[in-house]
Amino acid sequence: MGGKLTFISGGVRSGKSAYAEKLLVEGAAAAEGRLVYIASGRAVDEEMKQRIEKHKLDRVNENWLTIEQSVDLEEVLPFIQPNDFVLWDCLTTWLANELYMEQNSTYCIHITGCMEKKAARLFETVAALREKAAHFIIVSNEVLDEPASTYEETRMYCKWIGQLHQQIVKLADDAIEMDYGLPLYWKKEGQVAVR
Questions:
Q1: d(CA 130, CA 77)
Q2: What is the pLDDT of residues 143-192, one digit of tens each?
């Protein structure tokens, strides 16, 4: 079965990354494990540059190995070792990056079957990361609380994020929703915690 898999979602600035980091820092300290941060964000504008720098500063006091991987998550696998405590931040950014990867001058979002292949590869990678790491936490933004968009591409993005969230929660030991900096456990140790 491998290590523990935790899924943490929440709105922007809900405290999800900070909570994930806290869980892993505590776990790594107790097990004398290595901290690994997989970052999917790309500094495409000034706001994103500032957010990336803030996240780096938040981790400066701990000895995190940072791997910048905006697409093709499976490429991190050779760098993960047993007893690693791994944080992937975040699934929603990765999805946007993958949907807008070009293949023959066409974005994946416009190619039939493209995202299905990427999703299948993602689930294989999640299973492999879980098998290698002591604890693997996936962070993702909750974007499905808003009314349905009138834009087709936004609806497609929401469809995919919903499917990915549901599948990962099925696989996860713990599923946590962050709100106002507080964790709500929807699933704990493989069992539904809130009904």
A1: 10
A2: 766 666 678 898 899 999 999 999 999 999 999 999 999 999 999 999 99
pLDDT digits (tens, 9 = 90+) for 109-133: 999 999 999 999 999 999 999 999 9
The string of pLDDT tens digits covering residues 20-50 is 999 999 999 999 999 999 999 876 667 666 6
- Mark 129-155 as b/e (b = at least 16 C-beta within 10 Å): bbebbbbbbbbbbbbeeeeeeeeeeee
- 5, 172 Cβ separation under 8 angstroms: yes
Map residue 41 onto helix, strand or coil.
coil
Residue type, 167: Q
- Closest to 40 (Cα-Cα) out of 141, 143, 114, 166: 141
Residues 81, 92: Cα–Cα separation, whole Å? 25
Q: What's the pTM?
A: 0.91
| 3-class SS of residue 115 | helix
Tokens, residue 159 = 């469809």
Q: Are 62 and 26 in contact (CB under 8 A)?
A: no
Phi and psi torsions of 115, nearest 5°:
-70, -30
Q: Is the CB of residue 138 less than 8 Å from the CB of residue 7?
A: yes
From residue 122, alpha-carbon distances to 30, 73, 116, 189 in Å are 29, 7, 10, 23
Rounded to an integer, what distance in angstroms lies between the CA atom of residue 9 and that of residue 20? Answer: 10
